[in-house]
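W.,

You were right to be curious about this one. When I first looked at the sequence I had no strong expectations either way, so I just let the prediction run and decided to look at it fresh. Below is the sequence, 208 residues in total, followed by the output.
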Amino acid sequence: MKTPYKNIYTVLKLNRFIVLAVVFGAIVTSTISVILVFKLHQQTMNSAFAVNTDGSIIPLKLVSVQENIEVEALAHLELFHTYFYHIDASNYEKHMEKALWLGNNTVDALYRQKKADGVYNRLIQYSLIQKVVSIKSKVNIQAEPYTFETTCVFEINRGSTIDTYELNTTGKLIHVDRNFPNNTHGLLITDFYEKTLRKIDNQTHNEH
């Protein structure tokens, strides 16, 4: 006897097929979503952002985190040594103010010691010009705090004579919050120490 209703087993099979199809589709969709999220995460980890002078955000691609740290550390040290040792009677106060943003109390203590010893008074009294010629730094970025050693060559123009000196400094670098424009690299010099200072013969220096 024919009936207008389909066989119950046929209906159950169809329902089972629909359920399995939906479950399979959900699994495929979830897998694709996870893969896309992972790729997006990887792309984000390899990107950084900088603030432009007008306040806009600029995406920057980083080759590697380690390389970026070393570049910023070397730039930070060059900036600090330029501010701290490239001075004359007209700019030393402004330079010291900027240098003190880049180091901790050990830098401030050295500045106060130099001030007490009359270093900056002599700049004014004799119109001396202390000019940095070269800055070369080595930084160990294997673990923070990063130790460094810098060789800074500078000249002191006394008017009739120019004396050249080689200064070796040591210290450590730690991460701090970036401060625009006072500390753009987000690093701070600690344990700063003037290790050695020697006068260089100008003829020998010029040959190098």
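Here's what jumped out at me. The first strand starts at residue 47 and ends at 51. And, maybe more interesting for your project: The domain at 64-207 is CATH 3.10.450.230 (Nuclear Transport Factor 2; Chain: A,).

Coffee later to discuss?

I.
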